[in-house]
Amino acid sequence: MAAIETYIVDSFTDKPFHGNPAGVCMLKQKLTDMKMLSISKELGLSETAFIRKIGDTYSIRYFSPVMEIPLCGHATLAAAKVLFENNVIIDTIHFKNIQKLDLRVRKYGEKIEMEFPIYDTIPQNAPDELLNALGIEKIVNSEYNKETKILLVEIDSGELLEKLAPDFERLKRSNNAINGVLITTVSHRDGYDFESRYFWPWSGTNEDPVTGGTHTFLAKYWSTRLNKKKMNSYQCSERTGFMEVELINSKILTIKSEAQIVFKGELRI
What we know:
Elements: E1 3-11, E2 20-26, H1 33-43, E3 48-54, E4 57-63, E5 68-69, H2 73-86, E6 92-96, E7 102-108, E8 111-117, E9 122-123, H3 128-134, E10 141-145, E11 150-154, H4 158-163, H5 168-174, E12 180-186, E13 194-199, E14 207-208, H6 215-226, E15 230-235, E16 241-247, E17 252-257, E18 259-268
Parallel strand pairs: 2-3, 4-6, 11-12, 13-15
Antiparallel strand pairs: 1-2, 1-18, 3-4, 4-5, 6-7, 7-8, 8-17, 9-10, 10-11, 12-13, 13-14, 15-16, 16-17
Helix pairs in contact: 3-5
């Protein structure tokens, strides 16, 4: 029986039981995809990161309870938090995901900054069936990101965004070509530029509490609208969460926030 050092980390928050909880499994040897998927189902979190040291870098793979996810912000933040706490001397980590992206992560006191790629969006119609399932009658804009297969829908009401209560069975039936739908609006909260919520019953849980990966395209989307390179994002899910994003150049952005380790244990397989 093998033992895997395992953590649960609340990402994009400065206090426990908020933000987005991710599993982190520290691997000493490779696991099969099926085994990692089974562990993710067992933990029941939106994503679990599996990390393994290879030379000077760390291999990182992400699984939801349903499928492998190529890139995940909150699980990357969670994995970095664990590594930084276990080795207080280091302040920079390089992760490599299944897409061979070099994800550089740096520590600044309690804050952790991640480098992620920037993706584009293209105009795409939001089907009426999907909007009805979400409880949205009127939208400002809808666009699509092909790298993540996520549909972005902008609305003009932060109050509506916070109160959305989708019919998830209807939502799943409304579209079979996307991994998730991101609803976003300009923020009227002090200190924040835009807000969002992310629903993904097609490929994970019904709602992801705080989602770093969507900011690979959401940051550029709002940068164009607000004419800003550096912005504060708020995810108004039940658990809530926050991050600071900055477009460094046309290809790279940084995502900065905090994380809290709430559980450490041993998984036996």
